[in-house]
Design goal:
single chain, 27% helix, six-stranded parallel beta sheet, 17 strands
Length: 379
């Protein structure tokens, strides 16, 4: 996959990746998803996304080659690769903050490196390819259990951990009301995982009916279309005895619809780092003393949000890139036990050679698409 500019990607031959460091591995990709956050790149919303880049931070594969210092992998291992690139040795990795590794993206003071996610996230090529170089190969890649469906495995690289961490950061307690903004794969998974923490209600808000119907069935939650409401914040207040939700989760990020000013300043003229409509709704519809959890992706500069309401309502805001490696043991157990069935989110499997069509399908939400997986040809 080769990025040629906004709304332009195509399959193209690139040089075979090589071992560049003794801790590298070369992975032959077997599955690679298109993520909703890849669309931010595709739409030209992410700074320093360079022509020639290969996207893809959700992938599985087979180990083809390892550097001389790699000890935990061997050639032939089938692995899932977390989207975070982490050294495993810095202060942040030692705290389990693998998304905030201090060594892999030394040009940034915020995020660590992410496969295929612009030079603001390290500049590494991603896994929407036949082969990919994986740095720190002893840290991130995890051997896929023999009894695990590879479609489940590829969704453990981002979708499941990010959805789970969204719920975890919400500090959900027994009897809580949880509202999730966004019925994309991450929002759907966040709604599903929220039930692990004992709420009495889980509600999902979006504007696309087929996704709301899917979320209602998959996550067993209430689902509402904000286009049918006069004001989503007022709606949530009304259905919560005017208190507001205990926990609100922003699973939308910078390309939200629903507010003309946010859309114009955040997506059209880019005066802020994306349209923060969902975050604004989350802050205004959570109860006093409530928690707002953010996993939707925003750019680095700033956004227009009601900070005064955060202060005056005494809110807690928690946000981060998912710490995939920290969560994997628990989530693998959930999948193996049948408590989670991630592969049900996959609606489309597309040959890697047709990556341009796959992006158009996913971006335009055609054919009731929930999740698209790219399949490289086998040689």
């Amino acid at each position: 996959m080769n990025y040629r500019g906004p709304y332009r990607v195509r399959a193209e031959q690139k040089p075979m990746p090589e071992i560049q460091h003794p801790e590298d591995a070369i992975i032959r990709v077997t599955r690679s998803c298109i993520c909703g956050s890849d669309l931010h790149l595709y739409h030209g919303m992410v700074p320093d996304t360079r022509v020639g880049s290969t996207f893809g931070h959700e992938f599985t594969g087979v180990v083809e080659e390892v550097g001389p210092l790699v000890q935990n992998l061997k050639v032939g291992d089938q692995v899932l690769v977390p989207f975070n690139i982490a050294c495993g040795r810095c202060n942040f990795c030692k705290q389990g903050l693998y998304g905030n590794c201090h060594e892999t993206n030394t040009m940034s003071t915020a995020v660590g490196s992410i496969f295929g996610y612009s030079h603001t996230a390290g500049g590494f090529d991603g896994g929407q390819a036949e082969y990919v170089r994986v740095p720190y190969a002893d840290v991130g890649p995890t051997v896929i259990p023999a009894d695990m469906d590879p479609d489940d495995a590829v969704l453990l690289t981002d979708v499941v951990p990010t959805g789970y961490q969204a719920a975890e950061m919400g500090g959900i307690k027994k009897g809580d009301t949880v509202v999730v903004f966004g019925a994309g794969p991450i929002g759907i998974m966040a709604a599903r995982c929220a039930w692990f923490f004992g709420p009495s209600r889980v509600i999902i808000i979006d504007q696309i009916d087929y996704r709301l119907e899917f979320a209602q069935n998959y996550a067993k939650c209430e689902a509402y279309n904000f286009k049918d409401m006069e004001d989503p914040v007022l709606f949530i207040k009304k259905i919560t005895d005017w208190y507001g939700a205990d926990v609100c989760i922003d699973a939308v990020g910078c390309e939200a619809d629903g507010n003309t000013l946010q859309t114009f300043t955040g997506r059209k003229i880019m005066m802020q780092a994306g349209a923060a409509t969902a975050l604004q709704w989350a802050i205004n519809s959570v109860k006093k003393g409530g928690i707002v959890s953010i996993v939707g992706v925003y750019g680095p500069p700033f956004n227009m949000i009601p900070v005064g309401n955060v202060l005056n309502k005494g809110l807690t805001i928690r946000a981060n890139q998912a710490s995939v490696k920290r969560l994997l043991p628990k989530l693998i157990d959930h999948v193996q036990s049948g408590r989670l069935n991630p592969k049900e989110l996959i609606t489309h499997r597309v040959p890697l050679e047709e990556v341009g069509d796959a992006y158009r399908l996913f971006s335009s939400k055609l054919d009731n698409c929930i999740k698209t997986v790219l399949i490289p040809s086998t040689k």
